[in-house]
Amino acid sequence: MGGALSIASSVLVPEVDAVVAFYGVPSFELADPAQAKAPVQAHFGELDNFVGFSDVAAAKALEEKLKASGTQYEVHIYPRNAHAFMNRSPEGIKRRKDMAMDDEDEDAVQLAWSRSESWMARFLSS
């Protein structure tokens, strides 16, 4: 699920226990992250150029909103990475290269997976 929808679910869906979101912040009309009820971990690429949605400024604004929510959160920004850096499918890699996003960074991918797995184990373990 997309990052914005994941974050929105932390606000709007009471059954959600934790969220890991990759690149995207919901519009204020959909859901205000300051109202998050479930813990949120969010991942963004430093070079993401989707202004107001998943760029660094949007990530930092999200962090401020999550701080106001009082829920647990983490916001990670990966240097030298752009939008969809986790998409390592052949189609995703081609699409990213066609969009001049040539930032294959396996270390960042592995770090993001590790952080995501730890986050979910922390909040979803029984």
From TrEMBL:
What the entry lists under Pfam families is as follows:
DLH (PF01738)
* Top-level taxonomic group: Eukaryota
Signal sequence range? none
Which InterPro entries does the annotation name? AB_hydrolase_fold, Dienelactn_hydro, Dienelactone_hydrolase-like
Residues forming the Dienelactone hydrolase domain are 1-123
GO MF annotation list: hydrolase activity
**PANTHER family under this entry?**
ALPHA_BETA-HYDROLASES SUPERFAMILY PROTEIN, CARBOXYMETHYLENEBUTENOLIDASE-RELATED
What is the protein's given name?
Answer: Detected protein of confused Function
Recorded source organism is Hibiscus syriacus (Rose of Sharon)
